[in-house]
Amino acid sequence: MKQLFIMVHDTARANAVEAVRNAPAGYRVEIKPPTRSTDQNSLIHAVVTEWGKAIGWKYGGISVDLDDLKVIAMSAYRKQQRGGNRFVIGLEGEPVDLQLKTSKLTKAECSEFVDMLQAVIAEVEA
User: What pLDDT, on the 0 to 100 scale, is given for residue 100?
Assistant: First the structure.
């Protein structure tokens, strides 16, 4: 059985400790920062939509949609923040970019990502 505890108050923390104490052998515990909020997700979609409108929903000469632009933006973000992207050769010989998904961004990373996108939009609109 999977359990998730968000450390927002002492009771949640106590429940998490109790769950760890009672976990069967072989179970794992993962502590990580919170991912982006629903509000941040909405902001990403709004900003990417603004970018799409600013470029006429075309990138590199081809028509793109919201999901395409998110992949393009995440590729740029990953390169800026992590020093590069990771590519592998797919099952059909195609290049596959092992992207970080927006759903996995921490709250801080999400803020940086939106700031980067807003800078891109400002350049397009200038």
Answer: 67
Alpha carbon 117 to chain centroid, angstroms: 13
Token pair listed for 36: 């982006």
C-alpha 12: how far from its chain's center?
26
Contacts of 62-67 with C-beta under 8 Å, sequence gap 24+, read none
Predicted confidence (pLDDT) per residue in 11-33, tens digit: 999 999 999 999 999 999 999 88
Lookup: tokens for 26:
């072989």
DSSP line for 31-99: ----B--HHHHHHHHHHHHHHHHHTTTEETTEE--HHHHHHHHHHHHHHHHHSS--EEE-TTS-EEE-P
Q: Are strands 58-59 and 87-89 parallel, antiparallel or unpaired?
A: unpaired
Q: How far is residue 92 from each of residues 29, 66, 68, 88, 123, measured CA to CA in Å?
A: 37, 26, 21, 11, 37
